């Protein structure tokens, strides 16, 4: 093995865990082609094939399976030793990989992420936003950001603020021309900006009041899958939109948008930072968690 064999070993284990070069490559910060070339070099140095590769599948050979079984425990010990050494850092440095859904990332980008980078310029944050729920440990993230009800029970969770809520909004001119809905079914006679979920399904707008839940399959002239695009459409007077309140809070405050059906959009679960328990977290990790706790203390005092 080369003097840079740690990356090579991590690459073998990542591919073995996912049975896919394509899925393992982003975790390692490599292109699929570069990863394939790296494994080819490892196999050449060992003199055996570690993986059976076809155009449709990847699987370990017998030699590869034996190699992984012996290497995996040793690599874990090396990684733990490195983590212990990094934990002795006094100045936060290195990379923090964070997984979040887009609306949560928008809420904490300025008050937490960017403020953290200003305070600790030697840290790099790699933020990945996606709608699907991921296993942050298996996919190589240090921490995740989701609503409290979606945080796995075996994770440590740090609330990032008070409960969140949805907001139904449109421009004042739209409501002047079309009237305001007073109950959720009234939306069926309005033009609405429809929402497509990451799985391709159309989102039904959810409402609740006094224990009664209502789901409305709205109709309208446009369907979008990204909240910032939907906000633009609503601000242009296309129709009524359904957003996380934080995404349109400023628009409501200055009068660009008006909120309706507020009594049907009660508070929901708060946003949380979550992560697995770690014996010797590096300084950057510890500093980020502490700043998150400080953020929530400030947010709760302002409520």
Automatic annotation (TrEMBL):
Which keywords appear in this protein's UniProt record, sorted alphabetically?
Answer: DNA-binding, Transcription, Transcription regulation
Superkingdom assignment: Bacteria
One GO MF annotation is: DNA binding
Query: In what residue span(s) does the HTH lysR-type domain sit?
Result: 9-61
Q: What is this protein called?
A: DNA-binding transcriptional LysR family regulator
Q: Gene3D superfamilies recorded for this chain?
A: 3.40.190.290, Winged helix-like DNA-binding domain superfamily/Winged helix DNA-binding domain
Family to which the UniProt record says this protein belongs: Belongs to the LysR transcriptional regulatory family.
Listed InterPro entries: LysR-type_TF_proteobact-type (IPR058163), LysR_HTH_N (IPR000847), LysR_subst-bd (IPR005119), WH-like_DNA-bd_sf (IPR036388), WH_DNA-bd_sf (IPR036390)
Q: What SUPFAM superfamilies does the annotation carry?
A: Periplasmic binding protein-like II (SSF53850), Winged helix' DNA-binding domain (SSF46785)
- One Pfam family assigned to this protein is HTH_1
């Amino acid at each position: 093995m080369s003097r840079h064999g740690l990356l090579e070993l991590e690459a073998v284990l990542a591919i073995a865990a996912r049975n896919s070069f394509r899925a393992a490559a982003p975790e390692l910060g490599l292109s699929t082609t570069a990863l394939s070339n790296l494994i080819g070099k490892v196999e050449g140095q060992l003199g055996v094939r570690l993986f059976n590769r076809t155009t449709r599948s990847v699987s370990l050979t017998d030699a590869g399976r034996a190699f992984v079984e012996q290497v995996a425990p040793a690599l874990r010990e090396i990684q733990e030793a490195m983590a212990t050494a990094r934990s002795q850092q006094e100045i936060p440095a290195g990379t923090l990989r964070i997984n979040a859904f887009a609306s949560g990332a928008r809420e904490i980008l300025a008050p937490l992420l960017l403020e953290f980078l200003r305070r600790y310029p030697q840290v790099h944050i790699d933020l990945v936003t996606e709608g699907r729920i991921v296993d942050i440990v298996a996919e190589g993230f240090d921490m995740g950001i989701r609503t409290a009800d979606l945080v796995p029970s075996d994770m440590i969770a740090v609330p990032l603020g008070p409960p969140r809520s949805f907001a139904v909004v449109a421009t004042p001119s739209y409501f002047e021309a079309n009237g305001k809905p007073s109950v959720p079914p009234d939306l069926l006679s309005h033009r609405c900006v429809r929402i497509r979920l990451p799985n391709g399904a159309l989102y039904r707008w959810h409402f609740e009041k006094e224990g009664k839940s209502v789901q409305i399959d709205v109709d309208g002239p446009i369907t979008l899958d990204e909240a910032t695009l939907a906000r633009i459409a609503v601000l242009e007077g296309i129709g009524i939109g359904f957003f996380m309140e934080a995404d349109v809070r400023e628009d409501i405050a200055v009068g660009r948008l008006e909120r309706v059906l507020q009594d049907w959009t009660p508070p929901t679960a708060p946003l949380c930072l979550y992560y697995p328990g770690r014996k010797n977290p590096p300084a950057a990790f510890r500093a980020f968690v502490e700043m998150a706790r400080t953020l929530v203390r400030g947010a709760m005092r302002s409520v």
